[in-house]
TrEMBL record:
InterPro entries: Metallo-B-lactamas, Mito_Persulfide_Diox, POD-like_MBL-fold, RibonucZ/Hydroxyglut_hydro. SMART domains: Lactamase_B. Transmembrane segments: none annotated. It comes from the Eukaryota. Gene3D superfamilies: Ribonuclease Z/Hydroxyacylglutathione hydrolase-like. GO terms for molecular function: sulfur dioxygenase activity. One of its GO terms (biological process) is hydrogen sulfide metabolic process. It comes from Neurospora tetrasperma (strain FGSC 2508 / ATCC MYA-4615 / P0657). This is Metallo-beta-lactamase domain-containing protein.
Length: 308
């Protein structure tokens, strides 16, 4: 019997759910070579104390090491506004400047931190907003992907899909019969992501969802978050294309673009900003690096007409 090709080989997938930010991180590995990627990692942050910790990321590292995986890439679907990425921390923990120690840690591989090519326009926008020096964001991602670019993880083939709408830089990663769609879609009972961040666009998100819906019915869509109501169910990392088309509360098959856009825009106009918005954006456009001065900026909202 011949060995499976990269086109039909299916990955090993480990979902990890962070209940504090309701975020799914995925560890995706090639079963034949044990090469792996991490998708949308989480760095713990307490806004009350401005303290960063690595408990969640360390659990991921323990899982990687327990399976003897060799992490070749740390992937981001987009610049997240609701959690800090652990990408830089993971890279430093998985790779060392000491060759002998590096061989022990990750098979001599320094994983690349990667994202879609439109990251630059997002970095420029938020660097200006928060006064981030160019040298702290320019070129901090090791690799930026072209639309529909393909790369290998061991014997697996991964294809990058541009899925804008939630943010303009948003991408998904297709591996075998699975696509990791970030914040493009959520569990059918949750629906879709907001589109009111700078560069977000409900029209574009509708089109991106149609791209997902064009996949074979049995393909699995792995989502970036889940928000089940209390005790209703456990967080679900994926649903099938068929389930999404049939059940998605915002975008099930037959929903017109005008219906979705009108509903999404009305809904977004009443949403509060994410709790970690300002901290997350400033760290994530730096690919998980911290500001050199150790300071993050949070804008003040002053009562109308009131001045100091």
């Amino acid at each position: 019997m011949s060995s499976p090709t990269p086109q039909d080989l299916e990955p090993l997938i480990h979902p990890l759910f962070d209940s504090t930010t309701s975020t799914f991180t995925y560890l995706v590995a090639c079963p034949s070579t044990l090469h792996a990627v991490v998708i949308d990692s989480v760095l713990d942050f307490d806004p009350a104390t401005s303290r960063i910790s690595t408990t969640t990321a360390d659990s991921l590292l323990s899982l990687i090491r327990s399976h003897n995986y060799k992490t070749v890439k740390i992937l981001e679907t987009h610049v997240h506004a609701d959690h800090l990425t652990a990408s830089r921390y993971l890279q430093t923990q998985l790779a060392s400047n000491d060759a002998e120690e590096e061989e022990k840690k990750n098979g001599g591989i320094k994983p690349e931190i990667c994202i879609g090519k439109r990251i630059v326009q997002v970095q420029e926008r938020f660097a200006e907003r928060y006064g981030i020096p160019r040298e702290e964001w320019d070129g901090v991602f090791d690799r930026v992907f072209e639309d529909d670019e393909e790369f290998r993880v061991g014997d697996l083939k991964v294809k990058v899909k541009h899925l804008p709408g939630h943010t303009p830089d948003h991408v998904g990663y297709m591996v075998g019969s699975n696509i990791f769609c970030g914040d493009s879609l959520f569990d059918p009972e949750i629906g879709s992501a907001r589109c009111d961040f700078p560069g977000g666009n409900a029209h574009a998100l509708y089109n991106s969802v149609q791209t997902l819906f064009s996949l074979p019915a049995q393909y699995r869509i792995y989502t970036g978050h889940d928000y089940p109501s209390a005790d209703s169910r456990s967080p679900q990392p994926y649903t099938t294309v068929a389930d999404q088309k049939l059940l998605n509360k915002h975008l099930k098959e037959g929903t017109t673009k005008d219906q979705f856009v009108n509903w999404r825009q009305e809904r977004d106009s009443g949403l509060a900003e994410p709790k970690l918005l300002h901290q997350a954006l400033q760290v994530n456009v730096r690919a998980g690096r911290m500001p050199r001065d150790g300071m993050l900026k949070v804008p003040l909202r002053m009562p109308g007409g009131w001045k100091l």
